[in-house]
């Protein structure tokens, strides 16, 4: 037997351990949040911190798509239509605060740049 292979018992214990850790990090913060006397004084701080989660998650999803090209190199060149389209969409979002206008402007800019320069 190779020393890197796990026995059935080791595999089960590993899975049970991963399940316990995954459950714990998801359950206990919510369990503590429901207890007002323990969590109540930190509720405003938690609400403020949690309000930034969607922005952080969306940024971490979108930025690699916008900046990294097929070669795996960060591209700030004019040929990076994703970058220019996202900058237009960002500007429109700041000016209008309208999600539909933001999406349409970003997609429209990308389509226009693709038609004109490809």
From TrEMBL:
The chain crosses the membrane at residues 12-33, 45-67, 87-117. Keywords: Membrane, Transmembrane, Transmembrane helix. This is AzlD domain-containing protein.
């Amino acid at each position: 037997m190779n020393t890197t292979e796990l026995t059935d018992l080791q595999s089960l214990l590993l899975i049970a351990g991963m399940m316990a850790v995954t459950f714990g990090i998801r359950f206990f913060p919510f369990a503590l949040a429901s207890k007002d006397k323990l969590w109540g004084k930190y509720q405003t701080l938690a609400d403020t911190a949690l309000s930034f989660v969607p922005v952080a998650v969306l940024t971490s999803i979108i930025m690699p798509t916008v900046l990294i090209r097929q070669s795996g190199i960060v591209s700030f060149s004019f040929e990076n239509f994703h970058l220019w389209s996202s900058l237009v969409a960002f500007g429109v979002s700041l000016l209008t605060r309208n999600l539909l206008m933001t999406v349409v402007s970003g997609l429209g800019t990308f389509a226009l740049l693709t038609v004109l320069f490809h």
